[in-house]
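Structure ticket #2291
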Amino acid sequence: MHQKALDELEKRGKTLDAGSFNGTVQIVHQDGSVLFFNYAFAEQFEQWWLVFTEHCGYYAFYNDDLEFIRFYTPATHIELEEGNEDNEQVG
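Resolution: structure written out below.
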C-alpha cells in the first residue's frame, strides 16, 4: 500500500523532501486515543489517511476508524476531516 501511496503522491506532483514535513498531524480515533506526529503531513488515498513523517516512517489509518484528523502548520491549522460536529477549531 505504501508504494501505491508514494506513486500517487508523485502523480499529484508532490515530492518528499525536508520541506514536505512542515507541520503536525493529529489523529483522533473513535475510542478517544490521540496521536501527534511532528514534522509530518497527511494525504488521503482511497479510504485511507496516510501520514508521512520526516524521521519515523509512514503510517496508514483507515478513514472509518477515525473520529477526525487535523494538520497544523506553525502559523495555522487545516481541518482535513471532522467526524464530530461538536469539535471546536483551535487557532
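Closing remark: The chain is about 10% helix and 45% strand.
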